[in-house]
Design brief:
Blueprint lengths: L2 H9 L4 H16 L6 H6 L5 E8 L3 E2 L3 H11 L4 E4 L6 E2 L4 E8 H31 L6 E3 L9 H10 L13 E3 L1 H7 L2 H11 L5 E5 L2 H10 L3 E5 L3 H11 L4 E5 L7 H5 L5 E3 L2 H4 L6 E8 L1
Parallel strand pairs: 6-11, 7-8, 8-9, 9-10, 10-11
Antiparallel strand pairs: 1-5, 1-12, 2-4, 3-5
Helix pairs in contact: 1-4, 2-4, 2-5, 4-5, 5-6, 7-8, 8-9, 9-10
Amino acid sequence: MRPSTVDAIVTGGLDPTDVMRVIRAALDEDLGPDGLDLTSRATIPDYQTGEGELVARAGGVLAGIAVAAAAFELTDPRAVVTPVAADGARVARGEVLATVAGPTRALLTAERTALNLACRLSGVATHTRAWVDAVAGTKARVLDTRKTTPGLRALEKYAVRVGGGGNKRMGLYDVAMVKDNHARAAGGVGPAFARVRSAYPDVPVQVEVASVAEAETAVAAGASFLLCDNLPPDELRKLVAVVAGRAYLEATGNLTLDRAREYAETGVDYLSVGALTHSSPILDLAMDLRTEA
């Protein structure tokens, strides 16, 4: 990858090595065991060069332009991608997002991988921005979950940040979360929390609760972050009043965009939305190619 592309990836909080791994796996999936783009190899001479544009086919929030650039550059180091729009920008249908130039075969070989990734990330960013806009003016912040596409978690969580949302834990390794099944297996919320705190005293611990009574138990045990699972707004308001600032509160479970503000106005600190990553439609992007002799 070109240094400018690496810099853009690092600035976004991503690991270039991880990004390259994802891109190489996607290219391998497309090109098969022999690494062949049969159509481009048969129809385009290896000396031909081309240039073109990455274009938005719909309006939304752009994310992943440097990832798309990396897909072209890893396919052929002679490929040059020059971004025109930046991640986080609201783009309109027909807007040029970047220019591309290089060997025509390479541009066409990389096209689908580059677009698949940029379309996916831009879709997540666009969907996230809609949630963020819906709760604007409240104190609630929109968070993602672990309900991500296998292999794309870091990229999808990056797209959530681009859209104005925040990230919860990256995985099972960085934050402990006592959910209902953990509590059942351990004999209750209190014992489960105590065991986690004893085993990992320095690790953040979050506790899932499904009632005001469970919230009282969790706070009494020392929990400072509660996931309020599938509680309607009226119950959330009661829970907010009972906890009275002793713990951060997160509404989670079956949240929908049309009711986002209603939940945010209960006074919770966070809305945790799995749909940001598991149900975001792509933002349609395309490459329009021109060729040279």
